[in-house]
Automatic annotation (TrEMBL):
Pfam families, per database record: YqeY
PANTHER family associated with the record: ALTERED INHERITANCE OF MITOCHONDRIA PROTEIN 41, MITOCHONDRIAL
Organism in which the protein naturally occurs: Acidithiobacillus sulfurivorans
Domain of life of the source: Bacteria
Protein name stated in the entry: GatB/YqeY domain-containing protein
């Protein structure tokens, strides 16, 4: 079952169960996917849908921290609830050891020798890590490895 089909089934289940928060979040995700398809004039595959889910989660995290800073815990709680719902569509996250192993493999495969090769390494890692690791953290690890090695 593709991610799009799973979203459709989950939306129907949320309607039947009258889970309005979950239904609203799924509809928001589907609207973001549809908007991207209209902009690109093509149907998105699962990896592109995953990138949209990650982007929406990142937006929700930023909003929640802003709401907490602005002393609005009610709105922050709503954003965090949406993060939980959206996170269900991401694959199982990788452990730090697995991420380090993939970084080591990517560095050797791309023959990276210094910080100037960071983009090359990250581009080779992105398909494997999409939705399974925080790319900002991965970028920091790659930078540290290339600066030290």
């Amino acid at each position: 079952m593709s991610l799009r089909e799973r979203l459709q089934e989950d939306m129907k289940a949320a309607m039947r169960a009258r889970e309005s928060d979950r239904l609203t979040t799924i509809r928001m995700l589907q609207a973001a996917i549809k908007q991207r398809e209209v902009d690109d004039r093509r149907e998105l595959d699962d990896t592109e849908v995953l990138s949209i889910v990650e982007k929406l989660i990142k937006q929700r995290k930023d909003s929640a921290s802003q709401f907490r800073a602005g002393n609005r815990p009610d709105l922050a709680d709503k954003e965090e609830a949406e993060i939980v719902i959206l996170s269900a569509y991401l694959p199982e996250p990788l452990s730090m050891e697995a991420i380090d192993a993939l970084i080591a493999e990517a560095v050797s495969n791309t023959a990276a020798s210094g910080p100037k090769d960071m983009g090359k390494v990250l581009n080779s890692l992105k398909p494997q890590l999409l939705g399974r690791a925080d790319m900002a953290l991965v970028a920091e690890k790659v930078k540290a490895r290339l600066n030290n090695g």
